[in-house]
Amino acid sequence: MVTIETVVVTVLPIIFLIILFGGGALFRRKNIDMDGKPPINKVLFYASKYSIIILWGAMVLQSWGISIAIVEIPAFITGIALILWIFGFLFLFLGRFELGSSFRLGTPREDTSLRVDGLYRFSRNPMYLGVYGTVLASVLYTLNPIVMFLGVCVIAIHHKIVLAEEEHMKKVFGQEYREYCRRVRRYI
Questions:
Q1: What whole-number distance in Å separates Cα of residue 132 and Cα of residue 161?
Q2: What total of structural domains would you count in the chain?
Q3: Is the residue at 48 inside a domain?
């Protein structure tokens, strides 16, 4: 039986991926390379990015009744997971739209603008907060040890990506970025 929970869990990542890859097609039409330069080891970078999709898929499967949980999941844990899922995707959607044509997977190969408005007034990395929220939601929703291990790896690698991207931003935007860092925290 399809429930509101199943629809929400399934539709949010599908819409985000459509926007992500559809936006990439629009970027290519404007001769903009959405795939920036991986700021860390290329294999690790892309493995972590695609692992997010696996983690989202685990939560979608669980929501459709294909249980991958190894224990009974209490309702309050499921509730927390759903709240994290919704807020995580909210941060992903808003962060993506607010970056506009400055969005890249990795560090840009060409000039972009520094975004410091919208969600970026409160967090230097709202999209990464969104990723962390959705990954944690998948872990809690499934309570599967493989999902937990992969989730920890994704968060650790993405934190490393954030640190490398910050070094790139310091080089590109200099004092303006350093002042922004003094005003706004890395995550929250």
A1: 13
A2: 1
A3: yes
Question: pLDDT 10s digit of each residue in the chain, 188 long?
Answer: 799 999 999 999 999 999 988 887 777 777 777 778 999 999 999 999 999 999 999 999 999 999 999 999 999 999 999 999 999 999 999 999 999 888 888 888 888 889 999 999 999 999 999 999 999 999 999 999 999 999 999 999 999 999 999 999 999 999 999 999 999 999 99
Is 54 part of a structural domain of the chain? yes
- The secondary structure of 91-158 as a DSSP string is HHHHHHHHHGGG--BSB-SS------SGGGGT-S-HHHHHHHHHHHHHHHHH--HHHHHHHHHHHHHH
Q: pTM (2 decimals)? A: 0.94
In which domain, by residue range, is 71 found?
Answer: 4-183
Provide the 10 A C-beta neighbour count for residue 176: 13
Q: What is the CATH number of the domain that holds 56?
A: 1.20.120.1630
Amino acid symbol at 85: W
Within a domain: residue 188? no
